[in-house]
């Protein structure tokens, strides 16, 4: 279950009605009874294998609920989501209609509601929710579940502070008073019905700024004032004319209706604004998290953003390899209080919100939320703020849970992608190992066969062999051994380069010298291939690792020797091109397969597998080395036949000058050792 | 009297192959499998040349060189694997005379030993040579002249000095550091690029094909060697 938490605020998309399991719906109210109600529904749904929804209808009244009751709703929705139901929250005014509309949209066949405990007078009026549902449900079954004697009344929200309320009533009264004054001034000029308009206008203005109580008060008060001052008999409430009475009744109805509507609009606007803010926060979070590729960065960004949204100190804890919770991102918190760690571990273990301001383990400073992904808790989000209650208000808690859900998803995604990477890497490594083994075993065995065969011939055929044959066999052994040595060296060099262990020891070198060293190393093999070298005498010094660059030239030469018939020439030349030194090595062999010129630099690639010797590593090593020098290496076919390998080395700044008239470095005084024999 | 060579090497196969080659060449061979054993033998028998493997089981090669050098000026030739250029340079600067990279041929080994033995013969070193010739190159030390074939080659003073230092150590590797110190002075030991440029110029003056030098050989990553035969 990727727990979306109660953060799911929109109804699920309509799913086509499926034959078979029916859908259950449990209606939640802000009461502790919601929890057992959910559990009952879950049990029934599980027994029937049915899908179930937990629905809460958020009415304007929701705002007036106490934080405890809002928390109850949030907890109930959270529990529902955790138990496998779909937690849904919709906004509306008429709870019963919303429930039925939702039920019809989602093919719900059974609705569970708690036993109502409406205030007596409302029950007396016969407008209980259950009655409404029963009258209007049509084919849906309604189950009323008893609350095991729980008659816990939803605690009313503590009234707005009395002083504030008093101020609002005074404002309302003042407004009506002002209006009366205005009406008094206009009275001689206006008809009575137009004065009513003035009053209605004031009621609208008042109710668009004040709470419902003062708004209602203003409408009543204005009717009274109007009746007292402007309806004959003046200065009394007695009315000689029934027409006036009718005017007053209409005025009363219209003004209460208007004040009610206005407050409702305000509520909706506020809710919309809040939704918008939350959506924006969620959107921003998801935008930020998708752009990140490392877990550390992801956690840091998430912690920073949550901390900004909730104006609190945020820490993300995740288990280390030993399963111990450690701080992975965000602000470290004082661990003086061992209980902090205990709460974190408890939340990690149970996957349930706990800490300051919540109903569970609240004696600590931090609020702890589980980060849940794929059915298990992967970490804990900790928030520390001066006002935990504000943060745990249903709205912000819902947002917080939605955000933590996003973080969990992002972490999960990151983990999965890392696992995929590791798997990919392992497959690649395995493939490489196999290729290496098969290629190396072939390449090791060939020279070993020659060596073992020649040596045993020498040992056993001591008398029968003439000295020329012996010489030939011994020469063969020597050459094959040298070949093996180079192969082993290449393998070691390859693994050094691949593992990043190779340290480049770059110095200013004379290219001519480096090429000369490579030629010297291959002296005996090169006797069948005349090599011509054409380097401009004023080629500047290059900053390279001479041993590695020598390896490049050796490997290129070996490659050419391997694939070209004996007696064909190899030409090495160098020139300066676009601030780069370009070295080419051209042969007169069969050339490269057209279109495969790049492939020869791939690991283990051989133009004709098994036909020639070499592990197929030489050119790969060349490429690694040249690229580490900031250069490029490529191969092409010569128009006149044969292959041409080129590599470039960027010319570095500050090369020591290669000048014929190089100033002689001053001799140290007193240094007279200039005779070889002294 | 046969020259004595001490071989400090832990691998029995390499010892066997060296024994076969060296005994037939008329050397007396002492064999030690560890650094300690080798040091004890060096003290007891006073060899002319020490062949020292760098991968000994009990001691670092460097340590063996230090201990030997504390009391002996015996020629030390290091046997090392490829890719250990830094180690080689460090050991050479610590007092080793030359090195051989494994795998090596017997020819190379014998050439190194001959050079090392020449150093051990004080009689030859006593009288300054007046003339030296190598292939078609002749050096007249008296008149400080260098000839290639019959033609005189003009060398700058530094080039002449570079050549003479290499000649002094001919057949033996000379590290960059050592060359710079002996030719330019102690404060120039880091100036490898200058050395390279001078070597290049020297080659262009002395070698037939400077790219494939016959006399002034490069020891990659270590230094230079003047061929000796």
Tell me what you see in this structure.
In chain A, helix 6 (162-186) packs parallel to helix 8 and helix 10 packs antiparallel against helix 13 (394-460). Chain A is α/β, with parallel strands linked by helices and 678 residues long. Residues 1-19, 148-159 and 666-678 of chain A have low confidence and may be disordered. The radius of gyration of chain A is 44 Å and the shape is elongated. Chain A has four domains: 5-145, Rossmann fold, CATH 3.40.50.620; 162-269, no CATH class; 294-417, GAF domain (Beta-Lactamase, 2-Layer Sandwich), CATH 3.30.450.40; 502-650, Heat Shock Protein 90. Helices cover 50% and strands 15% of the residues of chain A. In chain A, strands 3-2-1-4-5 form a five-stranded parallel β-sheet, with helices on both faces. A five-stranded antiparallel β-sheet of chain A has the order 7-6-10-9-8. Chain A has helices spanning 34-48, 67-82, 95-105, 120-124, 129-136, 162-186, 192-207, 212-230, 242-290, 295-310, 338-350, 388-391, 394-460, 467-498, 511-521, 546-563, 618-628, and strands at 23-27, 51-58, 86-91, 108-114, 141-145, 313-319, 325-330, 354-355, 366-373, 376-384, 507-509, 531-534, 542-544, 570-577, 580-587, 633-637, 643-650. Chain B is α/β, with parallel strands linked by helices. Chain B has two domains: 4-124, Rossmann fold, CATH 3.40.50; 128-226, Winged helix-like DNA-binding domain superfamily/Winged helix DNA-binding domain (Arc Repressor Mutant, subunit A), CATH 1.10.10. Helices cover 43% and strands 22% of the residues of chain B. Chain B is built from nine helices and twelve strands. Chain B has helices spanning 12-24, 35-45, 61-69, 85-94, 106-120, 122-126, 157-168, 176-183, 192-206, and strands at residues 4-8, 28-32, 49-53, 75-80, 98-101, 131-134, 137-140, 145-148, 151-153, 173-175, 216-219, 223-226. A five-stranded parallel β-sheet of chain B has the order 2-1-3-4-5, sandwiched between helices. In chain B, strands 6-7-8-9 form a four-stranded antiparallel β-sheet, with no helix packed on it. In chain B, a hairpin with a 4-residue loop joins strand 7 (137-140) and strand 8 (145-148). Chain B is globular and about 50 Å long. Chain B starts with a strand and ends with a strand. The chains are: A alpha/beta (678), B alpha/beta (229). Chains A and B meet through helix 14, strand 11, helix 15 and helix 16 of A and helix 7 and helix 9 of B.
């Amino acid at each position: 279950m990727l727990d979306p938490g109660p953060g799911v605020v929109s109804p699920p998309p309509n799913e086509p009605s499926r034959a078979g399991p029916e859908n259950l719906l449990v209606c939640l109210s802000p009461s502790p009874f919601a929890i057992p109600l959910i559990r009952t529904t879950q049990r029934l749904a599980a027994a029937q294998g049915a899908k179930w929804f937990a629905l809460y209808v958020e009415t304007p009244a929701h705002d007036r609920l106490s934080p405890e009751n809002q928390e109850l709703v949030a907890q109930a929705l959270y529990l529902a989501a955790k138990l496998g139901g779909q937690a849904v929250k919709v906004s509306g005014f008429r709870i019963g209609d919303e429930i039925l509309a939702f039920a019809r949209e989602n093919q719900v066949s059974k609705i569970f509601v708690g036993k109502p405990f409406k205030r007596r007078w409302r029950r007396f009026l016969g407008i209980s929710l259950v009655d409404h549902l029963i009258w209007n449900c049509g084919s849906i079954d309604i189950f009323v579940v008893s609350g095991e004697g729980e008659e816990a009344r939803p605690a009313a929200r503590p009234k707005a502070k009395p002083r504030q309320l008093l101020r609002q009533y005074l404002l309302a009264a003042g407004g009506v008073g002002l209006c009366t004054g205005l009406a008094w001034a206009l009275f001689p000029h206006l008809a009575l019905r137009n004065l009513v308009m003035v009053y209605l206008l004031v009621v609208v203005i008042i109710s668009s700024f004040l709470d419902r109580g003062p708004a209602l008060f203003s409408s009543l008060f204005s009717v009274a004032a109007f009746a007292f001052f402007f309806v004959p008999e003046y200065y009394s409430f007695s009315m000689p004319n029934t027409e006036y009475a009718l005017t007053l009744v209409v005025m009363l109805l219209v003004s209460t209706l208007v004040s009610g509507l206005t407050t409702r609009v305000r509520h909706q606007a506020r809710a919309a604004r809040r939704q918008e803010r939350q959506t924006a926060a969620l959107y921003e979070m998801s935008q930020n998290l998708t752009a990140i590729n490392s877990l550390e960065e992801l956690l840091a960004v998430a912690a920073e953003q949550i901390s900004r949204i909730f104006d609190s100190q945020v820490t993300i804890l995740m288990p280390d390899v030993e399963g111990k919770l450690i701080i992975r991102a965000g602000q470290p918190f004082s661990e003086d209080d061992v209980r902090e760690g205990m709460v974190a571990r408890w939340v990690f273990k149970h996957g349930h919100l706990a800490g300051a301001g919540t109903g569970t383990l609240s004696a600590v400073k931090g609020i702890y939320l589980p980060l849940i992904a794929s059915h298990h808790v992967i970490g804990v989000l900790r928030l520390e703020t001066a006002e935990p209650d504000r943060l745990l208000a249903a709205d912000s808690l819902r947002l917080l849970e939605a955000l933590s859900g996003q973080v969990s998803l992002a972490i999960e995604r990151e983990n999965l992608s890392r696992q995929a990477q590791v798997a990919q890497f392992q497959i690649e490594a395995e493939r490489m190992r196999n290729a290496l083994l098969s290629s190396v075993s072939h390449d090791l065995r060939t020279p070993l066969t020659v060596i073992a065969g020649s040596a045993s011939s020498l040992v056993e055929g001591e008398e029968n062999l003439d000295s020329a044959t012996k010489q030939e066999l011994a020469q063969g052994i020597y050459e094959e051994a040298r070949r093996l040595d180079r192969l082993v060296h290449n393998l070691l060099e390859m693994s050094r380069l691949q593992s990043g262990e190779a340290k480049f020891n770059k110095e200013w070198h004379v290219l001519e010298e480096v090429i000369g060293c490579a030629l010297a190393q291959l002296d005996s093999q090169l006797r069948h291939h005349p090599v011509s070298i054409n380097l401009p005498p004023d080629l500047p010094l290059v900053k390279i690792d001479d041993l590695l660059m020598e390896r490049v030239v050796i490997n290129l030469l070996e490659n050419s020797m391997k694939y070209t018939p004996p007696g064909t020439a190899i030409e090495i030349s160098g020139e300066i091109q676009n601030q780069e030194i370009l070295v080419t090595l051209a042969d007169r062999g069969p050339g490269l397969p057209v279109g495969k010129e790049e492939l020869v630099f791939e690991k283990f690639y051989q133009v004709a597998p098994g036909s020639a010797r070499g592990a197929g590593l030489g050119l790969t090593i060349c490429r690694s080395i040249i690229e580490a020098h900031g250069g490029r290496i490529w191969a092409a076919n010569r128009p006149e036949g044969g292959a041409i390998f080129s590599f470039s080395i960027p010319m570095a700044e500050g090369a020591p000058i290669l000048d014929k008239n190089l100033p002689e470095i001053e001799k140290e005084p007193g240094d007279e050792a200039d005779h070889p024999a002294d | 009297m046969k020259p004595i060579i001490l071989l400090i090497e832990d691998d029995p196969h390499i010892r066997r192959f060296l024994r076969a080659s060296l005994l037939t060449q008329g050397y007396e061979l002492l064999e030690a499998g560890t650094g300690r054993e080798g040091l004890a033998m060096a003290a007891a028998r006073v060899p002319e040349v020490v062949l020292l493997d760098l991968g000994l089981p009990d001691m670092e090669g460097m340590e063996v060189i230090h201990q030997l050098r504390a009391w002996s000026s015996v020629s030390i030739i290091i046997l090392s694997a490829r890719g250990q250029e830094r180690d080689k340079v460090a050991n050479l600067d610590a007092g080793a005379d030359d090195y051989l990279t494994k795998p090596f041929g017997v020819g190379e080994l014998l050439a190194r030993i001959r050079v090392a033995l020449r150093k051990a013969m004080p009689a030859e070193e006593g009288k300054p040579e007046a003339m030296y010739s190598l292939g078609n190159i002749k050096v007249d030390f008296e008149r400080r002249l260098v000839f290639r074939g019959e033609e005189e080659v003009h060398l700058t003073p530094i080039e002449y000095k570079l050549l003479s230092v290499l000649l002094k150590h001919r057949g033996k590797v000379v590290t960059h550091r050592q060359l710079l110190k002996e030719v330019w002075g102690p404060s120039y030991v880091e100036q490898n690029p200058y050395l390279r440029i001078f070597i290049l110029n020297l080659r262009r003056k002395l070698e037939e094909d400077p790219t494939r030098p016959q006399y002034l050989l490069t020891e990659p990553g270590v230094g230079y060697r003047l061929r000796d035969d």
